[in-house]
Design a protein that fits this description.
By secondary structure, this protein is of the alpha+beta class. The chain has four helices and eight strands; from the N terminus they run αβαβααββββββ.
């Protein structure tokens, strides 16, 4: 309710100010948010994984998945595909010790990109963040960027 009220008030000020509202990923599940407000306020959302269904590689993946499994790919299908491609290609390129090279091996997947940071016994973290926005009632890529330097 708070978010809905805030967006309504901001939308009323739209003629006086230009807005870019950065929303939380959980906002997608809020049924009370008026889509006209979200589009009018130039809502941007962020997520560690997001699929751009207008991307030709994503379209090919969906078509191949449908043909092979007679079903729509869900988030796990995209995640599994990206993970397998990333780790298998890293192993092919760097061999058994590929984990030592993760920070030097950027990878662009369908659902997320991989830009690892960390290491030295502390583990690794993918620092990629997808940012997308609503445009004409569709989610479109707003800008993708890594957090910090890998």
């Amino acid at each position: 309710v708070y978010v809905s009220n805030l967006l309504r008030k901001l939308h009323a000020l739209r003629g006086q100010y230009q807005f870019i509202v950065i929303g939380l990923p959980s906002w997608e599940g809020f049924s009370a948010l008026d889509p006209d407000y979200l589009i009018g306020l130039n809502l941007h959302l962020y997520a560690n994984s997001w699929v751009d269904y207008s991307d030709p590689a994503s379209v090919r993946f969906v078509e191949r998945f449908r043909k092979a499994y007679q079903a729509e790919p869900d988030a796990y299908a995209f995640q599994g595909y990206d993970l397998a491609r990333f780790f298998f290609s890293a192993m092919m390129r760097y061999g058994e010790d590929f984990s030592q090279c993760l920070r030097e091996y950027p990878f662009e997947g369908l659902q997320t990109h991989y830009r690892f940071r960390g290491g030295s016994g502390n583990g690794y973290m993918n620092s990629w963040l997808n940012i997308y926005r609503l445009d004409n009632y569709r989610e479109v890529d707003a800008r993708q960027f890594p957090l910090g330097t890998p």
